[in-house]
Amino acid sequence: MMDVAANLDTISSNIKQSCSKNNRNPEEITIIGVTKYVTIERTEETIQAGISNLGENRLEGFLEKYNYFGKRAKWHFIGTLQSRKVKEIVDKVDVIHSLDRLSLAKEIDKRTEQPMECFIQVNVSGEASKHGLHPDDVQRFVEDLAPYSNIRVVGLMTMAPHIDDEQRLRRIFRELVTLRDSIRDQKITYAPCNYLSMGMSNDYQVAIEEGATHIRIGSKLVGSKG
Ligand SMILES: *Cc1c(COP(=O)(O)O)cnc(C)c1O
């Protein structure tokens, strides 16, 4: 398995290349190292390589890593979150990428001491296996969040299917961009919605070319096991 620093070098130069196509500044891109597949040791190596944003998709995996590393990293919860589990993570995670229903918003709002940064997860591709709101329901959902003053909508998140069809990937990412623009342009106090969490190992370069601000990379950065 390649070391994380070497993988990061490759990813960083790919990011630069994708940014240069659209005159974007690579500093606009936050790399979230997804450590769900790997051990504490490998996660330590990831932090040593300079990755300070880490992502976990399951409660147990997150708590294991958090209990060890604590605030040495900024923690992104990127997986499906059951409402009854919110109280176990709400004072530990920094950002939730999977807000997709009001019952979850209500629970986060109730449990958190300070406003929680959230991405609304949108199922753009329409795959039944993917979580997230239908694109047509996002506007209404944002409006319905108004009473929950501890929810701050920082952006939109999507997962594209694992495919090589670049044109289809671009269409999916563009739809999220359009939706983000329409929410952002309303200048809603609790929903600045500046960010786009899209792009994983398979498609982060395309996602950046289309405007991603947060890419979530597991296998190509830390590896997929061990
Ligand atoms: C696992 C996971 C990733 C990272 O996947 P890779 O393809 O290994 O980069 C990104 N986002 C979410 C929501 C995930 O569950």
Task: Describe this protein's structure.
The longest helix is centred in the last third of the chain and has 19 residues, at 166-184. Strands 7-6-5-4-3-2-1-8 form an 8-stranded parallel sheet. It has one domain (4-222): Alanine racemase (TIM Barrel). It has 9 helices and 8 strands. The mean pLDDT is 97. The chain has helices at residues 4-21, 40-48, 59-69, 86-89, 102-111, 138-144, 166-184, 204-210, 219-222; strands spanning 30-34, 53-56, 74-77, 95-99, 116-121, 151-157, 195-197, 214-217. With 226 residues, the protein is an alpha/beta fold.
The CATH class: Alpha Beta
**Estimated share of beta-strand residues:** 15-25%
Q: Number of folding domains?
A: 1
Distinct ligands, ions and cofactors found in the model: pyridoxal-5'-phosphate
The chain-level mean pLDDT equals: 97
Question: How far apart lie the N and C ends?
Answer: 9 Å
- The CATH topology label is TIM Barrel
Structural class: alpha/beta
Q: Provide the spatial order of strands within the biggest beta sheet.
A: 7-6-5-4-3-2-1-8
| Proper CATH architecture | Alpha-Beta Barrel
**Helix tally?**
9
CATH H-tier superfamily: Alanine racemase
The radius of gyration computed from the alpha-carbon positions, rounded to a whole number of angstroms, is 17 Å
Largest sheet: 8 strands, parallel
